[in-house]
Every structure is written in C-alpha cells, then in structure tokens.
Amino acid sequence: MKLPLRSLLPLATLFVLLAAWFFAAARGWLVRPTGPSTQIGLFPSPTEALAGFSEASRDGRLLKDTLASLTRVLVAYVLSVGLGVPLGLWLGRIVAAREALLPVLNFLRALSPLAWIPFAVLWLGTGDTTVVFLILLAALPPVAVTTVAAVVAVPRVYFRVAEDYGLRGLRLFSQVLFPAIMPQLVTMLRVTMGLCWLVLVAAEMIAGDRGVGFLIQDANQALRPDLILVGMLVIGALGIAFDRLLMLLTRIPSLRWGWER
Questions:
Q1: pTM value > 0.90
Q2: Is the separation of the CB atoms in 20 and 29 below 8 Å?
C-alpha cells in the first residue's frame, strides 16, 4: 500500500535529520578536544542515545518517569480545559463579567508560572500536586482568554438566527456556539497541550520528585547527556502523539461547518 505524500514528507525529513546526526557523529563534530588525549562531548551520538534509552528502559525508570509525567500533564490539561473553556464562554457572553475579570486573566497569562514555584513548594511541598498546580497556572488563563476571543468574534447574526429558531441554553451552545468557535478551540487545545509539556519539564526539574523533567535534571547532575536526550525525545514524541489525537476533532461531522463557513 502506497503512503500518501503527507506521510512521506515527515518520514523523509526524519531520515535526513537522522542521516545528518550519524554523519556529524562520524566526523567527530559532536565532541570537542580539551587536551592531547581528552575530549568533551557536545552532544550524544546516535549509538550513545540508543544505549541510554536501552539502559533507562531496562531498569524500568523511563517507564515510571514517563507515566508520572503523563499523569500530571493529563490531570492539569483536563482541569485547564474543563475550567477555562466554560469560564471563557461565560465571559464571552457576559460583557460586565468580561470587563471585570479579563484584566486578571491577562495578568496571570503574562506571569511565568515558574515565578510561583517558591510559593507552590511552600504551600504544597514537592511532588504531583505542586507540578499539576504550576501547569494549571500556565494553561488555564490562555485557555479562557482564547475562548473569550473566539466567542466575541462570532457574528451576531448567528445568535439572531438561533433565537428565530428557538435555540436557547444548551442547544444554543451545542448547535451554534461550539461549532462556530471550534477552529479556534482546536488550535487552542493543541497549543495548550504543548504549553503543558513545556511547563512540566521546568516544574519537575525544580519541584518534582520524579518524571521526565526530573530524569533530565538528574541526568544533567550525573553528566549523562545521553539520558538528557532520551528525556527530550520522549517528551517530543508524546507531544506529537497528542497533537495528532487532537487533530481528530476536526473530523467530527457535526463540527465541520466551523471550518467550512
């Protein structure tokens, strides 16, 4: 069965990157001499990365850290979307509430969640709750603000037609508002997932006791660049996988008109 062009192009890009990586390792570009018989590694070679992946997989640490990070991200992501989208829908429809609360959301959106780490550790200690809290602080404000912007941008004629057809309450939201803002929501969901992984690594490095970010920090202290790269590759692979899953939302027939209008 022939692969479509949209599948072949990413595979070709991956092949080129891998070939360049192997070539750089073979040419010695990934190390820097520091003396007559000593050198320092600037970046792990493919064989070193593979050996590090095998080691971390064999002792079970990679699986445990990956599951810990995955759980934290999913919990924070669900909370961010579950709280941020309804809040954004409400603010988008109620002008007075939007004027009162939007400046606060924009303030929180501009504030790095890492600035909260001292307070988060003081209040919650280190571990799952702290990391989830920090991710939630980073993800919820942009989710709410993006939803507000999407609702405000919906043409008012949609709501007038909905009133003519007697669509109110939940029917108005499910049959008119949600499909109309779905393109913006899907983009927001994808960006938010990437943001969650971004904050996760930083939070686990400082306030975590396990997870992929903690693995990267621990490998850095142990001078193990191969394990650092393994952690980076795991996070990147999970990010791509979740992005592809979220793109499936664009195939829901009842929501397609949001893209086709």
A1: no
A2: no
